[in-house]
Design goal:
23% of the residues lie in helices and 29% in strands. The longest helix is centred in the last third of the chain and has 18 residues. The protein is globular, with a radius of gyration of 18 Å. The two termini are 14 Å apart.
């Protein structure tokens, strides 16, 4: 097995929305805001090469939305999904599986692209199976008013229409030790229904792709919950359970949205689970 961090593009989001009821005087210590109250964000995906299987976990925003749409997110830097894949010698057609932690636009937008005539949409990975789960898919295609702006039909429905969509089985507990994709999955419902966090065994380490359960290292304190979460009071015990397990078992947490920390470990302290060490991917594995 080999892992590759895939940078699909950086952007900015409102710091207040990212930290909910936490005062700016606290969250700005770890996530400083610009003059518009926007904080740096990443859309960091993960590529898993495992035998003949090449699985991409999440795909970023993509590039098919309008300039007006992207104008709300202040994109910065020169990363893109295709250039990041090319850096490691891969092409979108090489991808065999796309695993989507959830279907918010900043996690799955790159899964679908315009067709050549720009008359409609098609999967961006023509040879891939797209993985979700039935409960989250239903949640996304029949969105509540809170999340409607995050579940965009053009990002979601073409995967089903292409015949390339497949669901992981409904879990009986919040953790499945091994899926068809050869990694474990932790299911969390606070941010959105049945978000999926892959647990990957790699070079004697457990790498966890934490998606939106822990957007940045600055979100480690349990009450630091995003305003975007649909069930924040459920996020609290989910985070607590997960972070305790991460500290107990020395998980390496792969941060999708932290523009300045790629991978972190955590430890128990008198104040709860807190940051232990921060690494770049290359520091750990090259």
């Amino acid at each position: 097995m080999k892992l590759f961090p895939i940078e699909s593009g950086n952007f900015k989001l409102d710091g207040g929305a990212m930290f909910g009821v936490v005062p700016k005087t606290l969250w700005s210590k770890t996530n400083p805001a610009d003059k518009n109250n926007m904080i740096d964000m990443a859309a960091r995906c993960l590529l898993v090469e495992d035998g003949k299987r090449l699985t991409l976990i999440d795909t970023g925003m993509g590039n098919k939305q309008s300039d007006k749409f992207f104008g709300y997110y202040y994109r910065w830097g020169d990363h893109s999904l295709d250039t990041s894949l090319k850096k490691y010698g891969f092409h979108p057609d090489d991808i065999t599986d796309v695993f989507m932690t959830h279907l918010h636009f900043d996690h799955c937008g790159g899964s679908v692209q315009w067709n050549k005539g720009r008359t409609g949409y098609e999967p961006a990975f023509k040879n891939a199976t797209f993985w979700s789960n039935a409960r989250h898919w239903d949640w996304a295609v029949h969105p509540n008013r809170r999340e409607r702006a995050s579940f965009l039909k053009e990002n979601i429905l073409p995967m089903e229409e292409s015949g390339q969509l497949k669901f992981v089985p409904d879990p009986k507990t919040d953790y499945v030790e091994k899926s068809e994709l050869n990694f474990g999955i932790f299911f969390a419902d606070g941010h959105t229904e049945k978000q999926m966090l892959p647990h990957i065994q790699y070079k004697d380490k457990t790498i966890v792709f934490v998606a939106d359960l822990l957007p940045t290292a600055g979100h480690l304190p349990i009450p630091y919950v995003m305003g975007y979460d649909t069930r924040p009071l459920l996020t609290l015990p989910e985070k607590e359970k997960f972070l305790n397990a991460a500290a107990d078992n020395n998980y390496y947490l792969f941060l999708e949205h932290d523009a300045h920390n790629e991978i972190i470990t955590v430890k128990h302290t008198e104040k709860g689970v807190r940051l232990d060490e921060s690494f770049t991917f290359n520091e750990l594995f090259n």
